[in-house]
Amino acid sequence: MVKDNPKQQLVANRETLERIFHRPENDQSRVVLTKYMEQILFGLHDFLREHVGITEEISLRLLASRFTSSDIDRSPVKKLADVISEIIEEIAPHAVNVSSPYFVGHMTSAIPFFMVHLSTIVAALNQNPVKLETSKVVSVYERQVLAKVHRLLFGLDQEFYDTHVQKPESTLGSFVEDGTLANLTALWVARNRLFSPLSGCAGVEQEGLAAAMQARGIRRVRVLVSELCHYSIRKAAGVLGLGNKAVVPIPVDHSNRMDVQALRRVVEEMHRDKETVVLAVVGIAGTTETGAVDPLHAIADLCSEHRIHFHVDAAWGGPVLLSQRYAGLLEGIQRADSVTIDGHKQFYLPMSCGMVFFKNPEAMDAVAYHAAYINRPGSVDLGIRSLAGSRSATSLVLGSALDIMGSGGYALLIDHGIETARAFAEEIRRRPMFELVTAPELNILTYRIAPGQWRASSGTDEDQSLDMLNRINIRLQRLQREAGNSFVSRTTLRRFGQPDTVVLRAVIMNPRTTPEILRSILDEQETIYLERIAPSLPRQ
Ligand SMILES: Cc1ncc(COP(=O)(O)O)c(C=O)c1O
């Protein structure tokens, strides 16, 4: 690390201020900056391997104890060169190397190196698409990117896109921070359209939910979604004033897809009760825990029969549409009223990029806001119909990535993820010590270690056996994570009528994750079980 001369007092003055808006403060800074930027820009993955997440045995408590000061010093305390060295040499090693091909536990993974270049340019331009006056060409560029993804999802005709792509009054979608805010935006729009103004009530956005419900004689508002939904749906219901309890979980079938018969029963029951209204049904295209895709066509049928807003949470699965081989897995998504997709998931963008799309280009009028100094009616200010105010020009990254990769490039990534997950499932099935709990429909699967003597079928009491297996798998996952060679995540599958089951969860999205690597992860788990867990278990 570059050491500061302790005698040299750093000062904040007009001269240094001038300099930081122009260039690195001195040659020393330039050398350090160039050294690391060169590595990051031209050898990203080698750099990450070398510097990030090299797990030293250091506890979070110890790390936290290094970051306890809450003072902001009046004078500068570090030079740029020191700060950069410190981030790379002291922070990065304790970050998580999510780009490792052995990191297969979460929806955050490696990104192509050029994403860093693109993001750097976006930061340098510092455009703010909230209004045309701070983004100009970026606003119209963003509209084009949104139209491309809209077309991927809904596949409407050329005339539709020619008409709406740059029409200021039309909104095909919106960039938001993440999938959570995309789901919130979709339900916000659905809520406002359901409780639109009527005589005596100016609508829910202006008058609030209580007044809007009273004006329509409604006492209960419900959102129906599979019991395996992401918790952002419940969060959205909280924020929108509906309350968590308004989210009604619908059971899943043996493939972890929403049980449409059960959904039908709930919808029909609610329909008969004149004081209850279903605000939206949410189908999931790639559930967080198991990657299952709900039966979108059947849900769409039910929604159109009862005129209910149909939202698809494709935060994870949306980009599967880029694969000719597997796009069919999302059949029915084109019938949605709105769709969530995350760019930072299977579009392989850096954090963070959420998007929400509406089939009807006027739907987002229900959340339009104007102000005297920006977002004037009729303008191309993208902040008019958007949950976010100021935000980054992420569309430049996504649009460029689509140009660089083409749908063919993305298809290779998607196909690799799905096919490698399938091969992994086969390997798990082959190994007597493991049990595949949910097979991959996309590129996520769950499994557990289930040594013979702890399986209920071998004469053990069922509850006891499950409890023991749950505890074994919790320990296994922790020990493997702490060893730092590889990472799979862990979750507890909670489904109606089934006991809570702790499972290991693998998410295969890194193109450098091979079946061989996955086999070595299972080998490591077997070894951890045999050497570190089994000896401490009671004898069966
Ligand atoms: C299906 C699904 N929806 C929504 C989200 C929320 O996305 P984010 O973490 O970007 O807010 C996730 C995240 O894992 C998800 O898997």
Structure write-up:
This protein is of the alpha/beta class and 540 residues long. Helices cover 41% and strands 11% of the residues. It contains 17 helices and 11 strands. It has helices spanning 14-20, 27-42, 44-51, 60-65, 80-91, 114-125, 137-154, 158-164, 179-194, 204-207, 209-216, 232-239, 260-272, 296-306, 395-430, 462-483, 515-533; strands spanning 173-176, 220-226, 247-250, 276-284, 309-313, 338-342, 354-358, 434-438, 444-449, 489-493, 501-507. It has a 7-stranded mixed β-sheet with strand order 1-7-6-5-4-2-3, with helices on both faces. A 4-stranded antiparallel β-sheet has the order 8-9-11-10, with helices on one face. A hairpin with a 7-residue loop joins strand 10 and strand 11. Helix 2 packs across helix 3 (44-51) and helix 15 crosses helix 17 (515-533). The longest helix is centred in the last third of the chain and has 36 residues, at 395-430. The termini are far apart. The relative contact order is 0.12. The structure holds pyridoxal-5'-phosphate. Residues 107, 178-180, 183, 230, 232, 284, 286, 288, 313, 315-316, 342, 354 line the site of pyridoxal-5'-phosphate.
